[in-house]
Write a structure and sequence with these properties.
Two copies of one chain form a homodimer. By secondary structure, the first copy, chain A, is of the alpha/beta class. Chain A folds into three domains: about 55 residues, Orthogonal Bundle (434 Repressor (Amino-terminal Domain)), CATH 1.10.260; about 140 residues, Response regulator (Rossmann fold), CATH 3.40.50; about 140 residues, Response regulator (Rossmann fold), CATH 3.40.50.2300. The first copy, chain A, is built from 13 helices and twelve strands. At the A-B interface, helix 4, helix 5, strand 2, helix 8 and helix 13 of A face helix 4, helix 5, strand 2, helix 8 and helix 13 of B. The first copy, chain A, binds a DNA duplex through helix 2 and helix 4.
Chain lengths: ~350, ~350
DNA sequence: AAAAAAATCGTGCACGTGCACGATTTACAA
DNA sequence: TTGTAAATCGTGCACGTGCACGATTTTTTT
């Protein structure tokens, strides 16, 4: 638990290699202008005595400044992507310590052209690293191909595309989270029917909607364990309370016995708000994501289980991976990093907090 | 999301205050030998232009070396305190970056004299900061009083004692965690009887056992919501499998209808191992703490809900608080920090990980 | 008032690295 | 051989802070 290594500096390496610190520095940073013979000697000595550059001295002396661009969807207050945005905000100060500036480029996730414009702007600004959520598959692939050819590292958050060009990925295992939701909902005995409310976007769906994977996981669990259960669907709208009122009233009129409800998108608070309005306290609701409205629904008891991921931590770790790659030239231990699925109830929600300052 | 502050150095402050950087440095570090008038001017300028010392330059120039001592119980592999120990291990490297060495002093938590000896050794070694778990109340108070008089900052983990001398506390809300356990266990309908297995230490209890608070929370929830439920207790031993087999067999012979089980200590794996041995798959078990054996019980389905805290993170944050206090002279935003209570089930346990490298 | 002591302050080197610049050596052509 | 270009390498300053040391000013003592 304790090592008191004497400090080994570049001067020690230089002395032992019979060269100057300038040459050692050139070797360490691959700046060329060094003979093969010298390079060999230097590397040998470094290996021998375990020289590690002093970050502080390095950062102090370096005048380099990097730019990290984040490509994420626009959002209204209280929406999922706001969490990502605040996660980025938390990382800004840390990044600045390493002479890395962070900027956000946002787009309308329901408008492909908007994504393309944003991608073009991103490339124009010549970032040294990129953090992105791959909403449109083909356009993202085009973008990452260009990044790869420019040798610009990029990190996926939220979801990822196949291929191995990315530095790292941080996200939630969507399929498993649906599976988990089903297992929690079916703890209760004697369920026959389940309601599932989805979001009606009027046809404007982004590609590869990750919530669909969640749904698959949910359905898979049911099929494996309770094949006799039936799931009834209906559609509500994110910003039309009166419409939702009518839809939900009508739904529960047609299905008066349904007590179990699940949503796969992040808007379960639309349900809990409805239940509160109608004073329906006997419903068993499972939903996702740490939106303020959802947490409120949990606190008031209208949402039984809320499954969340630590979105801010996710983003923070993504940016950390980039920082370490740029400053220390390290590669993350894992390329794919799945965040834990946290279960919130009325009795632990008040103690839940996402990121901590480090 | 972006601020391009020009770098403000101590020289700027000196210039604007009409003094030398030496004087400014004396003010910044409260090293005295500065006239009131100069001090005022310097502080005013600092406030005005928002000067922040450059950590890198500071760390580079400083020759100081600190020692942080951790006072925690000894443990056998797989026990709770091992988690604390690994948390400390994670922080060692980070601390070294700030010229802080970390050492552990351990004691037998069931032997008060051992605690006293450890406390004495700690004081003898003259640490600059301390992280401790306050197992014996009075002896801890004596220790912390001495630390306070020596002006040595200390951080509580696991539990804390009243008084405000500590720099920070990181732990789990024990009472609430018991409350939570009760709420999860009673999700099931038609329960009448609950089994609670406690650890028989043969009278060797440390003082202020935090698991008792957990039990209080559990009982409180029952009383408030299901006053008719009855809880039956029995005692098992941490390292005596045959004994436990007899006790548990006998218990379930006497109470064949009890399906719901809770433990408040960290050894719920003793229960799940018993259930596995007897192939009892219809029991509903709720327990605590992220021990490897407990996680295995969750995976195999013998433990329905395992309530955990992020112990490694807890310790890591405790040490971080100390580092920031010593290096940046900051005080933690919150003195009392309660960690989230995580709920693990068969379907999210494999994605659960505690600390991340930062 | 002069001397001594105390208070206050400025100067300059050190920390380990990055990198520009120029010095030196080597390679190659004339 | 000599000259020139290229390759290789060393020197020295800069980064911003900590702190020792000594210089200067103010206060106290005799």
């Amino acid at each position: 638990m304790e090592k008191d290594e004497k400090k080994i500096t570049i001067k020690d390496v230089a002395r032992l290699a019979g060269l100057s610190k300038g040459t050692v520095d050139r070797v360490v940073h691959n700046r060329g202008e060094v003979s093969e013979e010298s390079k060999r000697r230097v590397l040998e000595v470094i290996q021998q005595i375990g020289y590690k550059p002093n970050i502080y001295a390095s950062l102090l002396a370096s005048k380099k400044h990097y730019t990290l661009l984040c490509l994420i969807p626009k959002f209204c207050p209280g929406e999922y992507w706001e969490l990502v945005y605040t996660g980025i905000g938390r990382a800004v100060e840390r990044a600045r310590n390493y002479n890395i500036g962070i900027d956000v480029i946002s787009y309308d996730q329901f408008d492909r052209e908007s994504f393309r414009r944003a991608a073009r702007e991103l490339l124009d600004r010549n970032p040294q690293a990129v953090l992105l959520a791959p909403i449109y598959r083909n356009d993202t692939l085009a973008l990452t191909a260009e990044l790869t050819s420019r040798n610009v590292p990029y990190v996926y958050i939220d979801s990822r595309l196949e291929g191995s060009g990315y530095l790292a990925y941080f996200g939630m295992p969507m399929y498993q989270s649906g599976y988990l939701a089903a297992s929690l909902l079916t703890e209760q005995p004697d369920i026959r029917e389940i309601a599932n409310f989805r979001i009606d976007r009027g046809g404007a769906q982004p590609q590869d909607n990750p919530t669909l994977r969640r749904r698959e996981g949910f359905m898979a669990y049911l099929k494996e364990n309770f094949p006799e259960y039936r799931v009834y669907e209906d559609f509500i709208k994110p910003y039309d309370p009166e419409y939702n009122l009518r839809v939900l009233d009508s739904f529960f009129e047609r299905h008066p016995d349904i007590r179990h409800i699940v949503t796969f998108n992040s808007r379960v608070h639309l349900i809990s708000e409805y239940l509160e309005k109608r004073a329906l306290k006997d419903r068993f609701v499972v939903g996702f994501d740490k939106l303020a409205g959802n947490l409120e629904g949990v606190r008031k008891g209208y949402i039984k289980f809320l499954i969340t991921q630590r979105t801010e931590t996710q983003v923070y770790r993504g940016i950390t991976a980039i920082i370490e790659h740029m400053v220390f030239h390290t590669t993350p231990a894992e390329q794919d990093n799945f965040m834990s699925m946290d279960i919130l109830t009325k009795y632990n929600v008040d103690y839940y907090s996402d990121i901590y300052e480090f």
